[in-house]
Amino acid sequence: MSLPPNILTIAGSDSGGGAGIQADLKTVMALGGYGMSVITALTAQNGEGVLGIHAPDPDFVLLQLKAVREGFPIAAAKTGMLFSAPIIRAVAGALRERDFPLVVDPVCVSQSGSRLLQEDAVDALREELLPVCDLLTPNRPEAETLAGMSISSKADVLAAGEALLRMGARAVLIKGGHMESDGVVTDYLCVAGEAPRSLAQPRVETTNNHGTGCTLSAAIAVNLGKGMPLPAAICNAQEYLNRALRHSYAPGRGCGPVNHSVGCMLH
Fold this sequence. Notes:
- The protein is of the alpha/beta class.
- It has a single domain, classed as UDP-N-acetylmuramoyl-L-alanine:D-glutamate ligase (3-Layer(aba) Sandwich), CATH 3.40.1190.
- 37% of the residues lie in helices and 21% in strands.
- It has nine helices and nine strands.
- The two termini are 15 Å apart.
């Protein structure tokens, strides 16, 4: 019997349980991995918004990462909310030398509109973390912020993807959830030296979409940890997220999360 792949998430904690570390670990377990975590920030939040953020010292973030790397063979990792420039620099420096794929979800703003990345941390994200990642997964606003351009068309998406590749990312998946479309959400995969690919899924009309970016990037990391090629890892993760959105519900007030347990239903 093969053991589950060990998947590491380096991200913030969501006290409401729908995004961040909590969403990542639920996703990893639902898809058959073993989840480990490095917590970069504590958030006080629920489905209606973020009440406050407390970040640990970067040295303690690194201590968590050291403990995990020394104790477990890591099959794949992802980053989410990193909050500050010092934390980004610390994490990027520690991950330059590694033997596993790294997915970077450049979390800037929560689903409720609260800022989760300090303004002076954008340059650090762009300059320090992009060059060490195997896949960057920005939504449209995040891609606009990192690429320094507005995006309103497919041509803009592809231009932003090329710009982010030039900054050092090995591959970029620009997510289409914020783009206007008729019943379809199209993500665009840009890989250096390859023609861009459009990867579409049916749009799910729901307000329970808290943690979608965390869930997708975590699912991709699990699939990469299982040895899937990048395009297959992304398509499988898209399908999982689409099912999770279709079965989503609101456990409390405000914006509800996706239903991570749909992965478990398949086994």
